[in-house]
Amino acid sequence: MKQSQTFAQEEALQSYLDRMSNLMIDQKLGEKPKDHIRRVAQARTIETLLVLDKDHKRRPLKLLYELGLIDRSNQPIALDNAGLDHADLSELALRNACLRGVDLRATDLSGANLSGSDLSGADLRGADLTNADLSGTDLSAANLLPYDERRPAKLSVHNLKDNASGSSLDELRYTTINPKQTPTRLTNTNLEKATLRSTILGNTDLRHATGLEQEQLEQAIGNGAIKLPKGLEPPKVWEKPIEEQIKP
Questions:
Q1: How far apart are CA 31 and CA 5, in angstroms?
Q2: Distance between CA atoms of 248 and 243, rounded to whole angstroms?
Q3: CA separation for the pair 55, 227 (Å, rounded)
Q4: Are 189 and 129 contacting, i.e. CB atoms less than 8 angstroms apart?
């Protein structure tokens, strides 16, 4: 059974690679393509990522990056809501990539180079960013809360906006991370000059993150459960519930 599943995954991946090669060669995808060609590439990419398991998601992303199709300065293919959750993207070099709005829940990004990339609006709940380089990265409105495998919608931005309750407010404001939830790991993560405007940092442990400055925290969304490096203070606004800090 496992062998047949692996074969199906390899077949789906090869089909995607073949299709993208055709788009690159026949439709000039990498040379300022027409909008409908870009949309076809986007649709095929997002569809393929949905059916691939965590062990096969790495290659399509690497291909897009190496072909310059997700370079944030070059009319990139939009990957909003693309399913890269739980993928092994450790040690990948993705400098200046456009990963805006991507689903990166519980993804292994340890040691990855994401400097200068656009991760605005990305769902990074439970991601492993240990030793990752996020210097100069745009993390505006990204969600770095813990991730609950049993209740995937819990602590999502949509849930925080639309379904706030007294119990959830207490949990976000005052408790430590639930052992059954996966925390977003930021040990030795380089956040120098990263944009943290409306970034949801609630419950994160930032004590061993590097390059973090008070000005960045003042732009972020947080709560009393955040652990900060020495010399940095929680902004006054963090006394409000996270839901109240999120702009509609």
A1: 36
A2: 10
A3: 32
A4: yes
